[in-house]
């Protein structure tokens, strides 16, 4: 066990970090992170999962200071953080820190934006806090990955609560002791099980992390104490939830190695390990033409065992289950060229032509293959074959989405909820977050409301 005071050192770094200590390129990636998150939050705002969450919590809301992104309803900040975290993740279209498969922005941005309508903060403060929160979340995920994840913890929920607490504590101006308390309060609320993948509860994890992280910061601000060694103590978070504790991943090169700069953005609205398969199948469709897709007799996929472990649902029945079916995703990409949210609806998952092709898709694992690669072999009815190897999918760090692709992704999903005019206006304001009023951006996401963010 380390002799370093991990919680204390991390808290001190959070508290003492200034805006100018964050390199320009890291701040630029922070803006991209916010743009991507906001588009996903608006895009998921009318999902039935969000409807159900609102029916459950609306009767219990306190003063309704905070916007539910993309909707007319308002909630108190804690419940708004919960619901916005749900909507930003429900399409499985949000950002990914590929080293740990954590989705960093959902817990952090959802908590911060809900707080921004209750406690005024500048765009600069918002962006700094967002970057801090993402950095803390990713570093703690690195500390315990992969054992923590392999045990069945959903790392976005378990590490995300620390990111939300750090970000909110930063803008609240907590001192070091109170920041340690906030991290401790976050640690004791860390939760999320991978068993929930393919259900509404998966998106509850980042929502709950946002709500609990904000709660942790507010409690600490009020003087509510906790263990000051909550991360590294024998019965603290890292030792209880994992057999691996690499504290150099938490504290090493703080301020010079930026995990938040390694964020990536999904081009497809499903589990990240399916992306190479969708990418490859879309390339095949483009090469052979839509007409010849009907002549496919069989498709064989070869990938790392993690792909089937996470996305091996052979017969999905709902859109949410389809997001964790490499078989459905391959069929949809081949037949429709689609990997967007429109590929993962209850209707599309059950289309007869999708089901028919899905049943002719077979998958095997190869532990020697890289997790982000796939080999696809298509056999046609005339006996001819076509092979495609995808080493890294679009959206990976090696093939990142451009700003223009992020904008297309934003508008295409957001316009279905709030209309194209609001979607494009909101996108423009999101790019200017550092000089904007975050609260005004939240309010500008409401459909039918033409008020521009100031």
TrEMBL record:
Every MmgE/PrpD C-terminal domain range: 268-424
Pfam families in the cross-refs: MmgE_PrpD_C, MmgE_PrpD_N
Gene3D superfamilies xref list: 2-methylcitrate dehydratase PrpD
Domain MmgE/PrpD N-terminal stretches: 9-248
Source superkingdom: Bacteria
InterPro entries, alphabetized: MmgE/PrpD_sf, MmgE/PrpD_sf_1, MmgE/PrpD_sf_2, MmgE_PrpD, MmgE_PrpD_C, MmgE_PrpD_N
GO MF annotations in UniProt: lyase activity
Homology family: Belongs to the PrpD family.
Name of the protein in question: MmgE/PrpD family protein
Lineage, broadest ranks: Bacteria, Pseudomonadati, Pseudomonadota, Alphaproteobacteria, Rhodobacterales
């Amino acid at each position: 066990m380390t002799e370093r005071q991990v919680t204390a050192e991390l808290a001190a770094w959070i508290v003492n970090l200034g805006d100018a200590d964050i390199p320009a390129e890291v701040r630029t990636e922070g803006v991209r992170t916010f743009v991507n998150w906001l588009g996903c939050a608006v895009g998921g705002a009318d999902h039935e999962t969000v409807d159900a969450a609102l029916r459950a919590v609306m009767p219990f809301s306190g003063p309704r200071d905070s916007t539910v992104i993309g909707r007319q309803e308002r909630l108190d900040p804690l419940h708004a953080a919960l619901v916005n975290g749900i909507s930003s993740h429900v399409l499985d279209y949000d950002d990914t820190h590929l080293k740990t498969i954590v989705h960093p922005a959902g817990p952090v941005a959802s908590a911060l934006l809900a707080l921004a309508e209750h406690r005024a903060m500048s765009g600069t403060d918002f962006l700094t806090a967002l970057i801090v929160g993402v950095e803390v979340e990713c570093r703690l995920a690195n500390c315990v990955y992969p054992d923590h994840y392999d045990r069945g913890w959903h790392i976005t929920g378990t590490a995300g609560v620390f990111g939300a607490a750090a970000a909110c504590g930063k803008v609240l101006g907590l001192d070091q002791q109170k920041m340690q308390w906030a991290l401790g309060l976050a640690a004791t609320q860390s939760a999320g099980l991978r068993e929930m993948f393919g259900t509404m509860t998966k998106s509850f994890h980042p929502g709950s992390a946002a709500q609990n992280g904000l709660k942790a910061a507010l409690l600490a601000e009020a003087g509510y104490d906790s263990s000051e060694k909550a991360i590294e103590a024998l019965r603290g978070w890292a030792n209880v939830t994992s057999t691996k504790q690499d504290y150099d991943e938490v504290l090493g090169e703080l301020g010079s190695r930026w995990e938040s700069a390694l964020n990536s953005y999904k081009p497809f609205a499903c589990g990240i390990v399916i992306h190479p398969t969708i990418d490859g199948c879309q390339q095949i469709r483009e090469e052979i033409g839509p007409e010849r897709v009907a002549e496919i007799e069989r498709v064989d996929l070869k990938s790392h065992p993690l792909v089937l472990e996470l996305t091996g649902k052979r017969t999905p029945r709902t859109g949410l289950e389809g997001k964790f079916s490499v078989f459905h995703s391959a069929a949809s990409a081949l037949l429709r060229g689609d990997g967007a949210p429109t590929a993962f609806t209850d209707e599309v998952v059950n289309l007869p032509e999708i089901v028919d092709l899905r049943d002719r898709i077979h998958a095997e694992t190869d532990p020697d293959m890289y997790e982000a690669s796939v080999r696809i072999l298509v056999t046609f009815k005339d006996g001819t074959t076509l092979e495609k190897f995808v080493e890294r999918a679009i959206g990976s760090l090696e093939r990142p989405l451009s700003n223009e692709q992020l904008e297309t992704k934003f508008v295409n999903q957001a316009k279905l909820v709030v209309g194209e005019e609001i979607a494009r206006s909101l996108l423009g304001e999101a790019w200017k977050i550092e000089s904007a009023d975050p609260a005004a951006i939240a309010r500008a996401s409401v459909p039918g409301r033409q008020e521009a963010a100031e």
